[in-house]
Structure formats: structure tokens, C-alpha cells
Automatic annotation (TrEMBL):
Source species taxonomy: Eukaryota, Viridiplantae, Streptophyta, Embryophyta, Tracheophyta
GO cellular component, one term: mitochondrion
GO molecular function, one term: L-aspartate:2-oxoglutarate aminotransferase activity
Organism annotation: Rhamnella rubrinervis
Protein's name in the database: Aspartate aminotransferase
InterPro entries named among the record's database cross-references: Aminotransferase_I/II_large, Asp_trans, NHTrfase_class1_PyrdxlP-BS, PPR_rpt, PyrdxlP-dep_Trfase, PyrdxlP-dep_Trfase_major, PyrdxlP-dep_Trfase_small, TPR-like_helical_dom_sf
Length: 945
């Protein structure tokens, strides 16, 4: 063949080499290169890269390195594609350390990675079980202005799923969806597979539905994965419905799909349908593997068609496949269940399974099932190896035959062997002994069961520090201390020393007259070990003193907000500014006591009362607080449908509700917005309520992520609990509009969700308490039963008095009384009775028309000052010519402004300008004054330009 020399010839050479490489004919590819050189056509970097990739994929790294050596000899340097092939080859061979070394080599040679390098490296980190490192690679991709490809996101989602971070994978998928990224079908399949493996059937169904709405068509992989998940979750009907959809779309079944469906049909007792599927599979000529044959054999055994089952064994042999033990166990089990004991024994003999534990268990169960208990006992006694299933099966059938005393002996033998018997079987033996008049035997058996449990606890494999000899300590296990020699200088264990006077070697087989003494000895050993557990944990370096009770206590992490205040107070700079504290300050930066509060204090001073309040708190304060939230003329208040108690401010109200939720809806979880007040997470965590998050804030727009919020509300399981900020969201200051609140309320109604409102800023947000409660009014109009946490720290300045209220709207008065009584019971072990003074202040202010009018004016003045400072800060930034948009400062509401400043920019503000705030960029507008707003604006401009 004649080739023109030049670029075209090199291209033809590369095409030929690539074709042979794809066909795995590497020898011919090498021959083409040799022929090309003879014709004067020299291979280039593309030629060698093609060879390197092929050798990495089909031969190995060593062969690929030989190609690179030839490449360098030809004066051609490896490029990024060369290294990508090497890294990918090492990763496929699970040589992860080698992959990372190659990546470092590439950097040392001055070769910049491309997006595929990052993709391979990310995949490598996931394979190593280092999802955090993989996530750093994703950030590095963005930092270097690469555009992540769909493959990048597929690797990320797949890696997160396989490393157990399915929720993170789902959140990433949702985030990408909102960023207008159109997922490929493969992306959907990866996520569905990850959700299936974690048993998240609800999420699988939602993603499957989204897939149908996305314009993509599910393929056979999608249907098979979803179907398998349904069957695993015992949702057989749904799985079969998916199977029907798959067939209606014209997809062909493979052997796996047929076998999965047949197994599900067998489990639901639909043998006729399973048989129909089997016939269809045969008609379609599906190539069967051993797993498929096992499924068919199981079907025949269920039908009692053993002739067909044995016929399949012959067919397996003819096709060159090899039966596994599972195949024969299916037949043996089927024969036993059908009462064909002789045939089952013949099969066991034929296969040489005399000592096979599973086969023997099947035979014992079959013998017992058909009344041959004595033969089952003979077989049991002849078995050298037994397990819990062996004991449980025989004991269970002995109970059926009312042979309770023999069953109790077997139970003790089981415990002595260190094995378990099902609790229901234990109860059956004990109840049978009692009903048969053997009450003493039942009592002794129960005592031995308890003793066995205690001995099992003593035999725990955990490591502890135990006393050994005199004057020193050593690390050992409890078994070492109690059951092995070496605990004392005599070489005997502690338990052995205790039991020696009794002459007991086997604690579970001692005579009756020694049982009481034995219990006392075991209890002494048990108590010794428990004391050692408490006082001598090996996780602490060195031995602990008996008197050092709290040496294991580590310092708690510092509160980030209080840490800001401490740093501010320690700073000697005269220019320092604190915009981190969440408490109102006047325009001089001083704390404020409202005039209405001063007047209330004067009135209270004349009639001080230090008696306990009722457990539910001040009735007057609670009544006035409910009017603020539900309305002066609320029908809910008139009908006494609200369960309400005084709480320790808003924090206490949230904690009380979290405990209430945990006690009466123990299987529920709470959805919390991202971000939220940090203490929300602490409250529900300590109440042991599982937490989920939902989207709220959009970092790019610095506004509400309404689409993400609604998406999460729709996707949450029906009847979920959601924490909502009624107004002035902390920390973002971003609130939904009235129309958005209505949409949220509607969707809550559709999904039957419960809304719990945290309302710390009523009146303080806009200056109008009625306006700030609009979100709650919308939910009430739509017929929701809600919960509300209210407090008077911000809007009345009663920070230190800790005055709040928890209310729950109920179905009727009877239900409200029940809920209130339970709330009081929950409060009882925490604080019994709430504080009186702050409650008196609130009830005095709100209960007096003149004082309430004064309060409304003062709270509006506070809100107006905050709003004014927002405007001033924005105007100063715009006047200084800041290149960024600062509209969000005035669009947000309440005490806090979520500035959008990065942690690094906040650090610069602190270090260079002595301005203190939390590292998430939250500015407390209460700390901004006419005296420092210009300085603050200039500093922000400097760190953001």
C-alpha cells in the first residue's frame, strides 16, 4: 500500500494503530508502526499515546512503561494524555498509591493536568475511601476554571454513593439540577443504583419519576435496578409493576431479570406466575448461568416437581456448568419439606454431605416436620458441628411435640456452646414448662438463661485496663482477666479463683445446691469488670487514678459567636467594631432597656412575689403571647385548641418541642433549613431526633432558594416535621414573600407536613408585629396544625430573663389539654417551674394598653434603626465604588445581614481592620452605628475589591 508522506500519512498510521488497539491486536499495531517507519512515516505522540493506553488496558503497566521508554528514545516526551492513560491503568488494577505517584510525577515534569486527569484522580480517591480528598479535587477543577463534564459529576455521585454518602450524592444531584445541568441517563442510573443499595426506596421512586419527566427514557439497566430495589424492600407488587412497564416498553429481559422476578413471585406464593415466567425464559432462549438454574430448581422444588429439578441437574452438567453446594441444598431442602426424607438422605449420601451443617439442618427440620422427632434427635446427637439454627429448629419442634424438659436441656447445651436461641423459642420452652406443671424447672431454666447472659457480657472482647498483681496495671481483655490464666500470680483467672471453693468448672452445668453461690460469685466478677470499665478505660494514655473521675472529659469546642466577643474584648485597638453579637444596641453601641420595661419593673417592685409559678408558667403571660401569634380575636384561643406553656425563652421552647416530638413521634425526623441558627442543630441532636436539611439560601443571588426549598418539601416523606423561621431568618435575613409562603403552605398541606415555627423577632423584623406574623396566619388559614416557639429577648430586650412560650395547635380542647399535660411533664425534670420575674414584665407590658402602645412604638424604633443602618451601609459601599452588588443588604430583613463575605475576607477584616463578625459573613446590624458605618463600608470594600 502506498502512503504519501506528511501529515496525512501520520493520520492514516494513527488510525490503523488505533483500529488494531481497539481490536486488542497489539502485535499487529506494533507491526503497522514498524512498516510506517520503513516507509519513512515516523510515529508521533498520538501514536505512542494510543499504544500506551492499549497496553495499560489490556496488558499491564510494565508493558506500557516499555512503550514510554521507546517514546523517549524517539525524542518524544510524554504529555498529559500519556499520564492520564497510566493513571487510569494503575487505578483499574487497584494500584492506587501508584496512581497518586504518577500524578505527582506529572506535576514534577511540568505537565498541567486536564479535566480527565482530575476525573481519574477523583475516581482513585473514591476507590481509596477518601471522599473528602475527591471533593477537594472537584474544588480544584473549579478553581482552575475547568468546566466539569458529565463524567465528572457521574464519578462524584457514584463515589459518594459507594462510600456511604448517599444523602450528599442526592444533594449534589439536586444542586446540579437547579444549576441547569441536564443529567444524562447514566447519571440517573448511578444515583438510582446508589439509593437502591442503601435501601432508600422512597427516594428511588422520586428519582425514577424525575427521570420520566426529564425527557430521558429509562433503559433496561434502570428498570432492573429499580425492580431489584423493590424486591429487596419486599415491595413485590411494585417491583412486578416496574417489570410490566419494562416489558410494555419493549425491553428484553436477560437471565438476571427473569431470575429476580421468578424469585420474587416465589416469595409471594405466586407459583403459577413464576412458572409462566420460567417457560417464557426458556422460549426466548435466554442463556442461563448457575444462579439462573438455581432459581429454576427452587421453583420446581416449590411445585414438588422433583423429576424436573433433577432433570435440570443433568442439563447443567451437559452444558459444562458446575453445580455449587447451593444447588444441591435447594434440592435437599425441597425434599425435606415435601416429606421425602429417604430421598433427601440419598442425595446427601450421593453428594458426600454427611458432615455438611446446612444439609443436616434441613434434614432435622424435615424429620421434625413429619413427626420423626426421635430420628431427628439421633441425627442431632451424631452431628459433630452444630449452630444456632440446629438448636433452634430442634428445640422449636420439641416444643410442638410438648417435650419441654428435653427442650430445656438442649437450650442449656446451646448456651454452654456460646450460641443463641431465638427469644420466641426461649419463651415457648419456659411457657411450656409452666403450663405442664414444671414451674421449678422453668424457674431454674430462666435463672440459667440470665446467668448465661451475664457470662456472655463478662466474655466481651472490648479492651480495658485491669489491675494485675500489686502496684502495676496492664492492658488485657475481660476474657484474659476472668477466663484465662494470669490474673493473679497463681496463674488462675479471677472467675476461677471465685469458683474454686465451689468445685465448679462449667458454670452452666453446676448442681442445684451450688447455683446460688455461683450466682453470687459471677455477680462479684461482673461487678469487678464493670468497675474496671468505668475507672480504667484503655483509650486514655496511662493508668488512671481511682480518685480521678473526670480525667476522660475533654474540653468542649468554643462557641463561635462567644469567641468573637471574647476576641473583641481582648483587642486594644480604638477602631475595633463588633458586628458579631446578636443583641440590640443603640446608635452609640450601648445596650438598651426599653421604657415600657422600666415602667413595668416599677409597677412590679411594689408587689414582689417570689413563689413558684405553675408548671405551665404564668397564665397571663401565656395568654398575651398567644394573642400576638394567633391574633387578638383568634377562634383557636376561644375554642381552647392551643396547648401552651411558658418556656425558657425560644431556646427552651425549641428544646421542649424536640423532646415532645421524640417521645410521641419517635420514628420522625426534623427538616432544618440550610443555613439556620447553629443551636437548632444542637437542640434536636441532644433530643436524639434525626435531622435532615432542606435548601433555603442561594449563595449566588444572596436570596431565597425557593426552587430548592419547594423541591425538598415535595420530596420529603409524607408527614415530615419542618423547622421554619416565621420572620427575619437567622442568619440570612431572607424571608419568603407572601405569595411564596402561600405556595409553601399549600405544598405542606398536600404532603401533610408539620410546620414548627421559631419566631424570635416578631415586631423587631419590620416594626409591625402583625406583618411579621403573616407566615403563621397563612398556615392557620390553610388549616394546618402548627407549633410555635416565641421569645422576648430581641423584641422586648429581655435577653437575660429567658422568657418564652411554646404553643401547639390541636384538634380540639381535649387534645390540647392532653398535649399541655405532656409538655409540663417533659419540663418537670428539666426546670419544674419557669422563672417568674420576666413573665411578670411581659404580662404587665402586654396586659396594659398604654404600656403595650409604648412597646409597639419602641420596637418599631428599633426596627427602623436597623433598616436605616442597612440603607446607610449599602449607600456607603456604592459611594466608595465597590464593584460588587450590595442590593441584598436592604433586601434582607431583621437583625442579621448575610453579607456574602468569605471566611478569608472575614479574617482580613479582623486582622487588618479590627472588625469582628462570625466567619460565615453574618453581620449583626445592631452593631452598626452612624459612627462606624463608614469605616465598616470602607473595610468591606478593601477586602472585596
Amino acid at each position: 500500500m502506498y502512503m504519501r508522506r506528511g501529515n496525512l500519512s501520520a493520520k492514516l498510521l494513527n488510525i490503523c494503530v488505533a483500529s488494531f488497539c481497539k481490536a486488542k491486536q497489539l502485535v499487529k499495531a506494533e507491526a503497522v508502526i514498524v512498516d510506517g517507519i520503513r516507509l519513512g512515516i515516523l510515529p508521533n505522540v498520538v501514536t505512542y499515546n494510543t499504544l500506551v493506553d492499549a497496553y495499560c488496558r489490556f496488558v499491564g503497566l510494565d508493558a506500557a512503561y516499555c512503550v514510554i521508554h521507546r517514546m523517549r528514545e524517539a525524542g518524544i516526551n510524554p504529555d498529559v494524555i500519556t499520564y492520564n492513560s497510566l493513571i487510569a491503568g494503575a487505578t483499574k488494577k487497584n494500584l492506587f498509591s501508584k496512581s497518586l505517584d504518577l500524578y505527582e510525577d506529572m506535576h514534577r515534569e511540568g505537565i498541567s493536568p486536564n479535566i480527565w486527569s482530575y476525573n481519574i484522580l477523583m475516581h482513585c480517591y473514591f476507590k481509596l475511601g477518601k471522599p473528602d480528598e475527591a471533593n477537594k479535587i472537584l474544588h480544584e477543577i473549579i478553581f482552575h476554571n475547568f468546566s466539569p463534564t458529565p463524567v465528572t459529576f457521574n464519578i462524584m455521585i457514584n463515589g459518594l454513593c459507594k462510600n456511604g454518602y448517599v444523602d450528599n450524592a442526592l444533594m449534589l444531584f439536586r444542586y446540579l439540577h437547579r444549576c441547569r445541568f441536564v443529567p444524562h441517563l447514566e447519571t440517573y442510573n448511578i444515583l438510582i443504583n446508589g439509593l437502591c443499595k442503601s435501601g432508600r426506596l422512597g427516594a428511588v421512586k422520586r428519582i425514577f419519576k424525575d427521570l420520566g419527566e426529564s425527557g430521558h427514557k429509562p433503559n433496561a439497566i434502570t428498570y432492573n435496578t429499580v425492580m431489584k430495589c423493590c424486591f429487596r424492600s419486599k415491595q413485590y407488587d411494585l417491583g412486578l409493576e416496574i417489570m410490566s412497564q419494562m416489558r410494555s416498553k419493549g425491553y428484553t429481559y436477560d437471565g438476571f431479570a427473569y431470575c429476580t422476578t421468578i424469585s420474587a413471585l416465589l416469595k409471594t406464593g405466586r407459583i403459577y406466575d413464576a412458572n409462566a415466567f420460567m417457560e417464557e425464559m426458556m422460549r426466548n432462549g435466554i442463556e442461563l448461568d448457575i444462579a439462573s438454574y438455581n432459581t429454576l430448581i427452587n421453583l420446581y422444588c416449590k411445585e414438588g416437581n422433583f423429576e424436573a429439578a433433577f432433570g435440570l441437574l443433568d442439563k447443567i452438567e451437559k452444558e459444562g456448568l458446575e453445580c455449587d453446594q447451593y444447588t444441591h441444598m435447594i434440592i435437599i431442602n425441597g425434599l425435606c419439606k415435601a416429606g421425602k426424607i429417604v430421598e433427601a438422605q440419598r442425595q446427601i449420601s450421593r453428594m458426600g454431605f454427611h458432615s455438611n451443617l446446612v444439609a443436616s439442618n434441613c434434614l432435622i427440620d424435615g424429620l421434625c416436620r413429619y413427626g420423626q422427632i426421635d430420628r431427628a434427635i439421633e441425627l442431632f446427637e451424631s452431628m459433630e458441628i452444630k449452630d444456632s439454627i440446629t438448636y433452634t429448629s430442634l428445640v422449636h419442634n420439641l416444643c410442638k411435640a410438648r417435650r419441654f424438659r428435653y427442650a430445656s436441656k438442649l437450650m442449656l447445651a446451646c448456651f454452654r456452646s456460646g450460641m443463641k436461641i431465638l427469644k420466641c423459642t426461649q419463651r415457648a420452652v419456659l411457657d411450656g414448662l409452666r403450663d405442664s406443671g414444671y414451674r421449678n424447672d422453668a424457674r431454674k431454666l430462666q435463672s440459667r438463661i440470665r446467668l448465661a447472659k451475664m457470662l456472655k457480657m463478662l466474655g466481651s472482647k472490648e479492651r480495658w485496663v485491669m489491675e494485675c498483681g500489686v502496684g502495676h496495671l496492664k492492658l488485657c481483655t475481660i476474657d484474659d482477666c476472668l477466663l484465662q490464666p494470669g490474673f493473679r500470680s497463681s496463674g488462675e483467672s479471677y472467675l476461677a479463683l471465685l469458683l474454686r471453693p465451689l468445685g465448679v468448672t462449667d458454670p452452666l452445668s453446676c448442681s442445684v445446691n451450688k447455683e446460688r453461690a455461683l450466682k453470687r460469685c459471677v455477680f462479684m466478677a461482673f461487678r469487678t469488670v464493670m468497675m474496671s470499665k468505668v475507672l480504667h478505660r484503655s483509650s486514655v494514655s496511662g493508668a488512671r487514678s481511682m480518685s480521678s473521675w473526670w480525667r476522660s472529659v475533654e474540653p468542649a469546642p468554643k462557641d463561635p459567636i462567644l469567641g468573637v466577643t471574647e476576641a473583641f474584648l481582648a483587642d486594644p485597638s480604638p477602631d475595633k467594631v463588633n458586628v458579631g453579637v446578636g443583641a440590640y444596641r443603640d446608635d452609640n453601641g450601648k445596650p438598651v432597656v426599653l421604657e415600657c420595661v422600666r415602667e413595668a419593673e416599677r409597677r412590679i417592685a411594689g408587689s414582689l412575689n417570689m413563689e413558684y409559678l405553675p408548671m405551665g408558667g404564668s397564665v397571663k403571660m401565656v395568654e398575651e403571647t398567644l394573642k400576638l401569634a394567633y391574633g387578638e380575636n383568634s377562634d383557636f384561643i376561644k375554642d381552647k385548641r392551643i396547648a401552651a406553656v411558658q418556656s425558657l425563652s425560644g431556646t427552651g421552647a425549641c428544646r421542649l418541642f424536640a423532646d415532645f416530638q421524640k417521645r410521641f413521634r419517635p420514628d420522625s425526623q426534623i427538616y432544618i433549613p440550610v443555613p439556620t441558627w447553629a443551636n437548632h442543630h444542637n437542640i434536636w441532636r441532644d433530643a436524639q431526633v434525626p435531622q435532615r436539611t432542606f435548601h433555603y439560601y442561594h449563595p449566588e443571588s444572596k436570596g431565597l432558594d425557593f426552587a430548592g426549598l419547594m423541591d425538598d418539601v415535595k420530596n420529603a416523606p409524607n408527614g415530615s416535621f419542618f423547622l421554619l423561621h416565621a420572620c427575619a431568618h437567622n442568619p440570612t435575613g431572607v424571608d419568603p414573600s407572601e405569595e411564596q409562603w402561600r405556595e409553601i403552605s399549600y405544598q405542606f398541606k398536600v404532603k401533610d407536613h408539620f410546620a414548627f415555627f421559631d419566631m424570635a423577632y416578631q415586631g423587631f423584623a419590620s416594626g409591625d408585629p402583625e406583618r411579621d406574623v403573616k407566615s403563621i396566619k397563612i398556615f392557620l388559614e390553610d388549616g394546618h396544625h402548627i407549633g410555635i416557639a416565641q421569645s422576648y429577648a430581641k423584641n422586648m430586650g429581655l435577653y437575660g430573663q429567658r422568657v418564652g412560650c411554646l404553643s401547639v395547635l390541636c384538634e380540639d380542647e381535649k387534645q390540647a389539654l392532653a398535649v399541655k399535660s405532656q409538655l409540663q411533664q417533659l419540663a418537670r425534670p428539666m426546670y419544674s417551674n419557669p422563672p417568674v420575674h420576666g413573665a411578670l414584665v411581659v404580662s404587665t407590658v402586654l396586659g396594659d394598653p398604654d404600656l403595650k402602645k409604648l412597646w409597639l412604638k419602641e420596637v418599631k424604633d428599633m426596627a427602623d434603626r436597623i433598616i436605616g443602618m442597612r440603607t446607610a451601609l449599602r449607600e456607603n459601599l456604592e459611594k466608595l465604588g465597590s464593584p460588587l452588588s450590595w442590593e441584598h443588604i436592604t433586601n434582607q430583613i431583621g437583625m442579621f445581614c448575610y453579607s456574602g463575605l468569605t471566611p478569608e475576607q472575614v479574617d482580613r477584616l479582623t486582622n487588618e481592620f479590627h472588625i469582628y463578625m462570625t466567619r460565615n459573613g453574618r453581620i449583626s446590624m445592631a452593631g452598626v452605628t452612624t459612627g462606624n458605618v463608614g469605616y465598616l463600608a470602607n473595610a468591606i470594600r478593601e477586602v472585596t475589591k
